[in-house]
Design goal:
The structure is a homodimer. Chain A has helices spanning 2-8, 12-20, 27-40, 46-53, 69-84, 98-110, 126-133, 157-170, 186-201, 217-229, 244-257, 291-304, 327-330; strands at residues 58-63, 88-93, 115-118, 138-141, 151-155, 175-180, 206-211, 238-241, 267-269, 286-288, 316-319, 322-324. Chain A is α/β, with parallel strands linked by helices. At the A-B interface, helix 4, helix 5, strand 2, helix 6 and helix 11 of A face helix 4, helix 5, strand 2, helix 6 and helix 11 of B. Chain A binds a DNA duplex through residues 1-2, 10-14, 16-17, 19-20, 24-26, 29, 44-54.
Chain lengths: 331, 331
DNA sequence: ATCACGAATTGAAACGTTTCACAACGCTCA
DNA sequence: TGAGCGTTGTGAAACGTTTCAATTCGTGAT
């Protein structure tokens, strides 16, 4: 910057003003400085800016698995919203490993990030509290933060399941099966709970729970094969799967033989509305999570958090998912 | 850091030494300083370190689309390899937009990144040369860099297609169809070229080219439907799809009616080996790109680039993909 | 008792910005 | 003529590290 100042025949402070508050500088000077910048190929040093500013213009985002479209979409939306605030999103994947999660938190702390968005692996690590105490806003993503001092943005899985099963009832089904597992996963438990609530409210409706070892296509196919072997009278007339992969596997098993038609004999609905859901042989109904809204809301929460740090009660945003009805339930 | 020094009763320089070269400091002192650090909750300021060091410990990675598993895998591998060098990967998605690409390059430049990994949208922007001239190593990813002053890591799509079609010939097929498009895409052209080369070498083999408007499941299904309507004698006995999505659509169309069996009547092979390829009704043969190796190699190239900057001839790494034979070709 | 030496520690400069109190200048107005 | 004002521009301090030459100290050799 000093070189630019010399080349333009002005002082260092003026160059800084041209960069940060050009309206305070005479237009002829501005031009001269810009000319010098171009000629010298000057590029600001962000480290020095940050050092001076005390915090960076970046926000850290640590997700469980960047390969998961759910998080990819959140990251994408967060990046866009951050850009509106002239912030950059730094992305980290913990891959379900608490040590990697901690390493990222530490790294972001050292970088004095503007704020931290975290989809936590398990227990909230102590360093998170330290961050907050030092004035860095923290927002939990995809985790209900009630009971913690942190803001949070999450999705109501119980409500999502309610939507799905109510839809099955609406199209006249009563013998409903819930397929999902392992039940150690919160998502699986919540979605099952939502299903149970709806069935409880519908006189004549019954819920059968089929637990799977994983949320995968293959697990779904196994369930489908099992259903095919059962006497027709004992089969459900609708299946709600805890995610789309299961539903796809089920659909494969059912359509492969052609003995059972979807949705005529069995209606099928999944969860997550992955991209592939609309491209299956029978387009799959599903429940879509508002990933974009989650990412944007998280960034907003972060930006709105003023220096009031402790004064402030944390805000908890809980989104409700959206039903996407396709042929697998509506015919 | 000054506070830590005071608390531990040592000088500022000693604290720095404890952090960066503990072997040069008496062990009792080291302990005392660490105690002070813990007590005060001291966290290094990365901006100051970078300012002093002149460059950051981050490398920038700009990909076309982080939602694409190909790039997700590359990013993942690059992150891991970078960690071995005590570097952090900053991820950006250009989304095929040259302006966003430029914005990321500028941002990374301001951050004085250690190096830049770029999967370029189109023409290489001028700022890329500026970066290199100032000593920041640049590595092109998924783009052959011959003819440019930049290192590059890419995959040989022609060779991949060769593998696929040679495999089809090996299992006895001769009437082969290539399905892919639009042919404006380099990948599509290269894969078609590879197919043509193999067929040209195989006496008796013939290649039919079926152009599609997109590389999607739906486009594949349309091709499948068209094949079903053709008189059996005129149908190919093997299809090589330019990517897995096309192959999945084709498979859906063929298996839905049950008139044509895969692989008995038509063998089918895709490209990319996406996760879903192994979970289709008939597991899909495919060509796997060594995404992990690409990410690692790119980081290695970056790290190995010494200050020799201009002296150095750029290195070009070209990986050969790998055949993944599943039931859709082998029965 | 002196010296040389290595190990441990110190102190200050430097990195490249931003910020802010202040100076310089040209006006207008009394 | 000079006071007062607004507009431009200046210069130095400060941000928190790392680095390196210089200093101190204890030890063994002479």
């Amino acid at each position: 910057m000093r070189d630019v100042a010399t080349a333009a025949g002005v002082s260092l402070g003026t160059v800084s003003n041209v960069l940060n508050a050009p309206e305070k500088v005479a237009s002829t000077t501005v031009e001269r400085v810009h000319a010098a910048i171009d000629e010298l190929g000057f590029v600001r040093n962000d480290a020095a800016r940050q050092l001076r500013a005390g915090r960076s213009r970046s926000v850290g985002l640590v997700v469980l698995d960047i390969g998961n479209p759910f998080f990819t979409d959140i990251a994408h939306a967060a990046t866009g919203r951050a850009r509106e605030h002239d912030l950059t999103v730094l992305l980290g994947t913990s891959g379900d490993d608490p040590r990697i999660e901690r390493a990222f938190i530490d790294a972001f702390d050292e970088q004095r990030v503007h704020g931290l968005l975290l989809s936590p692996v398990g227990e909230l690590p102590e360093r998170l509290h330290r961050l907050r105490r030092r004035g860095t806003p923290v927002v939990l993503v995809d985790r209900d933060g009630r009971g913690t001092p942190f803001h949070s943005v999450a999705v109501d899985d119980v409500a999502g399941a309610t939507l799905a099963v109510a839809h099955l009832c609406d199209v006249g089904r009563r013998a409903i099966a819930f397929v999902g597992g392992p039940s150690g996963l919160r998502q699986v438990r919540d979605r099952r709970q939502g299903a149970e609530e709806v069935v409880g409210r519908h006189p004549g409706a019954r819920l059968e729970v089929i637990e799977t070892p994983a949320l995968s296509v293959l697990a779904g196919r196994a369930v489908g094969d099992a259903l095919l072997r059962r006497p027709p009278a004992t089969r459900p007339d609708a299946v709600f799967c805890a995610n789309d992969l299961l539903a796809i596997g089920l659909l494969q098993a059912l359509t492969m033989t052609g003995d059972l038609r979807v949705p005529d004999d069995i209606a099928l609905i999944g969860y997550d509305d992955i991209e592939f859901a609309s491209s299956t042989v029978v387009p799959l109904s599903s429940v879509r999570q508002p990933t974009g809204a989650i990412g944007s809301a998280a960034v907003d929460l972060l930006v709105e958090t003023r220096a009031d740090v402790d004064a402030e009660e944390p805000t908890h945003v809980l989104f409700t998912p959206e039903l996407v009805a396709r042929r697998s339930t509506t015919g």
